[in-house]
Amino acid sequence: MIALCVLIIIVAMYLFLRGDQRHAIFIGLWVPTILAFAIFLKQIFNGGK
C-alpha cells in the first residue's frame, strides 16, 4: 500500500509539472484515501486492537 501511495504521488507530481493541475490534485487526493483504507484493514485484521 505504501509503494502504491508513493507511485501515485510521483504520477501526481508529473501531471502537475506537465501543467495538468486539476488532474494532479484529483489523483493526489487518492493517497489519503488509500492510507485510511489500509488503516481500516489493519484494524479489522488485528481484531480491533
Task: Characterise the protein shown here.
- The chain has helices spanning 2-18, 21-28, 30-45.
- The model has no long low-confidence stretch (mean pLDDT 92).
- It has three helices and no strands.
- It has one domain (2-45).
- The chain starts with a helix and ends with a helix.
- The protein is mainly alpha-helical.
List keywords for this structure.
transmembrane helix; transmembrane; membrane; mainly alpha; 49 residues; 3 helices
Summarize the structure.
This protein has three helices and no strands. By secondary structure, it is an all-alpha fold.
How would you summarize the topology of this molecule?
Layout: H1 2-18, H2 21-28, H3 30-45
Helix pairs in contact: 1-2, 1-3
Transmembrane segments: 27-45
Keywords: Membrane, Transmembrane, Transmembrane helix
- Considering DSSP H and I runs of 4 or more, what fraction of the residues is helical? over 70%
Total helices: the number is 3
Low-confidence stretches: none
Ends apart, CA distance between termini: 21 Å
Radius of gyration: 14 Å
User: What is the percentage of strand-forming residues?
Assistant: under 5%
Say how many strands there are: 0
Largest sheet: none
Keywords: Membrane, Transmembrane, Transmembrane helix
Transmembrane segments: 27-45
